[in-house]
Inverse folding.
């Protein structure tokens, strides 16, 4: 996939619960967000979930959200729809990515 020059790649990280299967493979949970800085919208997403279907499901939730203005609504939807063990890690890493984006773009 090719991305517009107006996009940025931002990572967010969070701790992983010991009971989560991700902990067997990774020390930390991360999300990677590709954000269009002209709209603040998330245009692509990745994370280090153990299964692709989990990554794809979370991706289907976060795409097209405005990371600056709609982060609370995004977190609410994640909490409403994603009930995996890593729910808290997903929310925390999205918030971390948002903070990095805000610092980078001076918004």
């Amino acid at each position: 996939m090719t991305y517009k020059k107006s996009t940025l790649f931002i990572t967010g990280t969070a701790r992983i619960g010991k009971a989560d299967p991700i902990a067997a493979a990774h020390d930390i949970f991360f999300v990677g967000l590709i954000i269009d800085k002209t709209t603040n919208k998330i245009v692509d997403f990745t994370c280090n979930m153990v299964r692709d279907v989990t990554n794809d499901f979370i991706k289907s939730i976060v795409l097209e959200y405005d990371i600056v203005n709609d982060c609370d609504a995004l977190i609410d939807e994640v909490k409403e729809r994603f009930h995996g063990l890593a729910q808290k890690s997903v929310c925390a890493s999205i918030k971390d990515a948002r903070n990095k984006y805000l610092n980078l773009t001076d918004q």
Observations:
- The chain has three helices and three strands.
- The helical segments are 52-62, 71-81, 87-105.
